[in-house]
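Still learning folds. Look over my entry:

…
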Amino acid sequence: MADSLKNVIAQSLECPVCLNTFTDPKILFCSHTYCKACLDNLLECHGNDQMLRCPVCRAETQVPNQDVSKLPANLALRSLIEDVKNHYHFCSVCKSEDKTQAVVYCQDCDKYLCITCHNTHSLWRDFISHEVLAISEIESGKVSVRRYRKCRKHPKEDEECFCSDCRRFACFRCVVMEHKDEGHRIIEAAVYENSHMENIEVLKSKAEKKRSCFQKYVDFIDEQKERVSNVQKQCTDDINKAFERSVRQLTENKEILIDEVKGKTEGVEKELDEMKKSAQEHITHLTTIADVVTNRTKIPLDMDALAAHDTLCQDLQEALKQEDPDYKQPMQSSKKGKRVTFKRNVGMDELTIGKIVNAVAKNIALPAENRMNAVVSTPDGRMAVGYGTSGVEIFSADGQIQQTVLKHVVIHGVGFLSDDRYVILDGSNKITLYTLEQTKLNVMFETLSSDEGGIANLTVDGDDHVYVSYRKAQKIQVFTPAGGRAIREIPCDGYEPEQITSYNDYMITASANTIRLIDKQGVVKYQLTEFSYFQYAAASQWNTILIAKLKHDVGLVSIDEYTNELKYVQNLIMDYKIEKPKCIWYYLRQYRSGEIALCTPDSLYIFH
């Protein structure tokens, strides 16, 4: 009876949240008690709210200035805990009234033993494998005593059952007397414990994925901030260089211009900071409540602990329902900052340095005039432009030529496999693979000749499947990187696939004035026709579709964003004037960093 009472007292000294002995216990308005550290975590989960909800009864307690230490302490419980810690454990085996102080505790026997009884216990063959703990290690906190779950009403009975409806453990006698009616679902306690731990692992995994999702969002915002900051630095440098070549009388104008740059960019940075702060608060909220729920090794036993556990799990489920971050918002904010540039006044008599303008696009003249044949994003986020004369030039997002490869290879189509190998389509519709070091590989592809298939185009999807479209044959062949025959063909009934782009599980085809979204069997899911424009499409970095509409005769381009059902979202570029090329042949692509690239046979335009 005494041991059972000890177990009841020990269980009553456990916090319903952390399941450990109370530390600095604080009382809520509803009279329930928790560790101060646990209440700090719960309050942090609710952000700036000064109201703390009790995990057991869900009553609310106002926390002055969000300071849990100002809540009343449970002095009686604190005193009881100290008494229990300082109380000597006496031998459970000695029969004399003058109890001997225990030196060890046997986990398997659930007995405290003095040195004499411990020596006798150690000699018994059946007890050799028992787990014995030193009292000194128990009192120092290095080890913890395994609690036996005994029924409070029937102390000699183990609580081997669990009622799912009452949310409590029970012995067999309690089940027969109190849980026999219809509506009580009784399962084995071990089954519940296993299910409980499995649910904890699932919640832990989901919480980690959601935290990782928002961390990527925060990292993306930092990238956008850095780009905006770089624009500010570049503008400031340009202004300073112009200022140094001018006279001292320009000092005042210089400072005005710098302040204008800061005014245009710092507002954007502030917007991004607010987005970042919101995302980080959600990460903190998610991490804190996930740690409270998942970082535990014990099973909640009594009704308060079970109620607290259920509440915390519900809070975590609510946090997991938070929608994934929308990257469009920081992208749109950063666009306002990235459009800022410095334009110097040249050949003017007035003593001014220049002015701040919104940059729309950078125009880079291509070295091989009228011979651009293919454009594709590189695995590292740059842009590769292939030429019919030969060679591939790789451009950074700011328009700098950073590399020239395959200088003696005629290019009609180019793609990249996941291991960075080049996939090259030549003028006779033959496919060749090259390593990253530009070594030609001995892999043959049985494509259609130019006589059979007509002019061809090429793209590579995320599974490293190579797609080749043929205008004359009006179909698309699909190959693996191993080469050989096509593993399947996709019909393009009634239209010529001039350009193809891989898009998730679909293909985007461009044919003069029509954009089609088709599945891998050739079924047209959605299509968009504009009779007044030539249309070219690209997959955006945010799972939408970008479409460039070209008025070739007057040299104007507009770029719009569409959903994956080809429904209009917004206009990005309106009637931007370009140098009209001789050939009606354009490519639209997007850099990983967000810039949009429009390539004509003569020029590469990079829109910020």
Summary: The longest strand covers residues 568-577. Residues 485 and 527 are 30 Å apart (CA to CA). Residues 1-5 have pLDDT under 50 and may be disordered. The chain has eleven helices and 35 strands.
